[in-house]
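Hi support team,

I've been running sequence recovery on a batch of backbones for a student project. Most finish fine, but this one hangs at about 90% for roughly twenty minutes before it completes. I'm not sure whether the input is malformed or the queue is just slow. I've pasted the structure tokens below so you can try to reproduce it. Let me know if you need the job ID as well.

Thanks,
M.K.
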């Protein structure tokens, strides 16, 4: 795989992110119409910047650092990238109008316990972690993979704590679980 097909792959992921944002905007309106309260709004801009920088790094590093495509690394990384996208859209489909990129909690809705949520509490973040490591490694952009993974681990610590607190049994129950 040369940088040109890899660039197309990254641009497809960028297009997918815009589709996610459109879904999140629609779902946010649905939730707010039902009295949703937002939690953790302060970390959301950091998440947006980190994810935008990640995608930019995926585009820039292979070209700027003349990273080769290594088939033994690139093809498995591509498979993992596609699996992460599949898991992300499974999460979106399972949560339906309750999926957001923000932490919006609608009062009196039970937690979703079907689809990937019957197996994991935060499966969307598994998809984010896998994609964060795999997408850059499709074209050996290891600095992007490492940098994003470390920064994302710190961000997810804050994000998951925020969601768990918002979803605690003492509060109104709902579910959320996405990132751009």
């Amino acid at each position: 795989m040369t940088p040109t097909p890899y660039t197309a792959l990254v641009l497809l992921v960028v297009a997918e992110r815009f589709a996610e944002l459109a879904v999140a905007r629609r779902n946010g309106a649905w939730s707010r119409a039902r009295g949703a309260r937002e939690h953790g709004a302060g970390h959301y801009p950091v998440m947006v910047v980190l994810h935008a920088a990640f995608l930019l790094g995926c585009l820039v590093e292979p070209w700027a650092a003349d990273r080769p495509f290594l088939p033994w690394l690139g093809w498995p990384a591509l498979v993992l990238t596609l699996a992460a996208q599949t898991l992300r859209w499974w999460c979106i489909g399972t949560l339906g109008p309750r999926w957001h990129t923000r932490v919006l909690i609608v009062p009196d809705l039970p937690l979703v316990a079907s689809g990937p949520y019957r197996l994991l509490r935060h499966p969307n973040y598994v998809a984010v972690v896998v994609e964060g490591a795999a997408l850059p490694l499709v074209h050996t952009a290891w600095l992007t993979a490492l940098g994003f993974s470390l920064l994302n681990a710190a961000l997810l610590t804050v994000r998951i704590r925020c969601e768990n607190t918002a979803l605690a049994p003492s509060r109104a129950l709902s579910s959320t679980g996405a990132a751009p």
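--
Follow-up from support: It reproduced on our side and the slowdown came from queue contention, not your input. The longest strand covers residues 37-39. No action needed from you.
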